[in-house]
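Researcher: Re-running this chain for the archive, since the previous output was lost when a drive failed. Same request as before.
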Amino acid sequence: MSAPTRRQQPAEELLDLARSRNSAYLDDLKALVSIDSGSYSPDGVNQIADWVQNRLTRLGFSVERISFPPHDGHQAGDALVARRKGTLSEADGGRRILLAGHMDTVFEDGTAAARPFRIDGSTAYGPGVSDDKGGLLAGLTALEVLDEYGADAYDELVFLATPDEEIGSPASRTLIENTARDMHYGLGLECARENGDLVIARKGVADFRLTITGRAAHAGIEPERGANAALAAAHLIVRLQALNGHWDDVTVNVGVVRAGTRANIVCSEAELRVEVRAATIADVRRVRQAIQEAADHPSVPGTSVSVEQLDLCPPMEDTPASRRMLEAARAAAGAVGIEVGAAATGGVGDANLIAGMGVATLDGLGPVGGADHTPKEWLDVTSVPHRIAVLAATVASLGDARNTDR
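Model: Regenerated structure tokens:
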């Protein structure tokens, strides 16, 4: 009597479907990488948007295309928000899942021609091949795989493609936050770390401007009548840099210093620009308080310091909810024969803004890649089918609360 045939698990079937699309994926990746789509190249970004919009429309998503007014003299490309309803209502356990990737790169126009897409062995190269065209395309392919498999037990899938992530999403930030507001889960399509890890946490970034006001005087005749703002700034820099090491996963950097107008005048005004990176919003607040305390007690008599917080990109925090997402991804990975770890990173992205809305978020769900923002940027093409299958299986698992609440 012959042994019964083993029935494939869903993740294994999704892997077969992903493998069947691998050649088309590489052809599409070449087409996307061959388009210059730097953050300051709206025409190129919009070419990517045209391509993505067509793909999503074919999948039955309703697609909204959003244009933005100029910001600080810069015109961003368009953004896309695509939605598709599933068969499981929220009342019955269906969940709303946001998949987010970006269409812009850090590279100038002409880079795609100067450094065209190529595959050498198992590695693809080209501007944006990893960050984020490889991940963006993996997300679209995962949606196609889910569609062919018939996995529609979710309340809603939302696909968000943004045009300006590489410069901090100044145009699209409000759109990202509004789109994330009602989601149960957020999945970032940045590529996995070089060792294959997913991203469980990203530091937040807060930018500050400190203005030091002193009193001008003739530096040769009556310097004692002055109050040197540059000297006060120098003492303040030392105090701020000394905050490094006070808290785990917190960095403080005084990156810009401006002071004075002439060597024969006691400096009356100085300015510091300070960046703080922290893993939790609580630590951002602690550092903000420490900066204010230092500013309240300047080292040079007659000087004063004002503190202005210019911006805050919230942390993507490692939470119990994001850990449950990680376990769903790990289960999917195990089913297709790979292992995935979890990493925290100091880099920020659109996933920070999604997490900042209180949405459980996991990032790094694209293929394995590295050397982002450099001429050596690469993507491991052998990782593509497995990572697409893991992403698709994770979406299918998270879409039905009955899978995660057991």
